[in-house]
Amino acid sequence: MKAFEFFAPKTLAEAKGLLNQYGESAAILAGGTDIVIEMNEGHRKPDVVIDIKKLKDLAYVRIEGSKIHIGALTTFEMISSDPVIRERVRVLAEAASKVGSPQIRSLGTIGGNLATASVAGDGVSAMMTLNASVVLDSVRGQRQMPLAEFLDGQGVSSRNALLADEIMTEVFFEMPDNHTATAFYKLAKRKSLAISVIGAGMLVQVDGAGICIKASMRGGCLARYPLHFKAAEEHLIGNKISIDLLEETLPMLHDAVYESAKSRPWSVFYKKESVQGVYRKLFAAILEQLNGKSYE
Amino acid sequence: MNKISISLNLNGTDRTILVYPNRRVVDLLREDFKLTSVKEGCSEGECGACTVIFNGDAVTTCCMLAGQADQSTIITLEGLAKDGELDLLQQCFLDEGAVQCGYCTPGMILAAKALLLKNQSPTEAQIKLAMSGNLCRCTGYQKIHAAVKSAVVIYKDKMAQGGESID
Ligand SMILES: Cc1cc2nc3c(=O)[nH]c(=O)nc-3n(C[C@H](O)[C@H](O)[C@H](O)COP(=O)(O)OP(=O)(O)OC[C@H]3O[C@@H](n4cnc5c(N)ncnc54)[C@H](O)[C@@H]3O)c2cc1C
User: Which of A8, A13, A87, B6 gives 20 to 30 Å between its CA and that of A250?
Assistant: First the structure.
């Protein structure tokens, strides 16, 4: 591994100071499950490594008003075992519990997952389904933006909007209410230690009469960033959620995947079909949750 | 490149060492502390051979820089036997014949140990989940699973007779 200077700041202010000082030559280290492997294989060669794992204040799941805030250093293990997330935000609980292996879930953080912004990032798919926003901080001050904008952004790398002196401090989203169901399904070659073939999320909110007033459907590994099934969402909104209505969206999912991935014939034939099986699983989970809820 | 000072509790003893930062925890343990039970397999976090117990959790040390070990508590396989007596899990792996080539064994035992330190009467499903990050390329999974299950049963019996705790 190439030589570098190593810092382990104890406060956020100290971390921001180091980032300001070293800028592009520095790399943030959180759990290490992406970056240490990249460094070991010679794909990343920072001159300075800033280990932020000692910033214990950035590991939390907190409810503030109608929103859930999750610190950037919260591990997948913490997320998947958090009672509020398990009860209220199944899309995230399920995605977090399917990341890598127990070892990887104990090290890997949500901030690292969103910053890496892998095509197959399960945290990315879940957070996009939740329409989450991220908070970035630096000595210049804080800014926040929707995750979609973060992923589209051109920061110090083309992966995301992070500028050289910035650190992600948290991600937050609207807490699903009593009329909202969410689900995630990971299609992969095996249950553990398998990269997603499709990592799909779904959120449906209904009114007192069971009419869909909000829908979010995002599929990981189907485009550079989780594929947005817009036509399917629009088909649900304004209608009463039923198995038939949900099934009517299947051809739309097929077509969206075909359009997105047709330049990749080796995977598109499989994925345009399997996406429908994946969403059938999600429909079942969504209906089960909505039926279990009182609609007042 | 400046050396960094790493202080940790390693297998029950406080240790401090000065090392270059461009090494991983697996290198630190194997090369600096000569704890060669920690095996390097895939070097990408996939196989679990380099698993140790880090602050109570099983983790893969090939994904960690040495500096991440500072102020931590680490248990490797060398830390399990007490006063010349094997840990119950080690004994059960022997008794069940759960070792073939042996390369995955330290990681397997530590993944199981991390589970038992948190949950002393795990279900089958919980055992399988806790061991799901460790691959055995001899594919001796059934005996490995049987060894962990038998450790759980023996431990329960011992506790019922007023025995001591698992750690
Ligand atoms: C064996 C294995 C299996 C895996 N399986 C999965 C899987 O199933 N699903 C999945 O989605 N991922 C998987 N991953 C990828 C990885 O574990 C996740 O992406 C993880 O969330 C990365 O988090 P980390 O804390 O380890 O990040 P690190 O490796 O520490 O950092 C990753 C990147 O993010 C940057 N970064 C980290 N934190 C911040 C911050 N707060 N602010 C700004 N930048 C930051 C770093 O500079 C670096 O570029 C797997 C990895 C391995 C090794």
Answer: A87
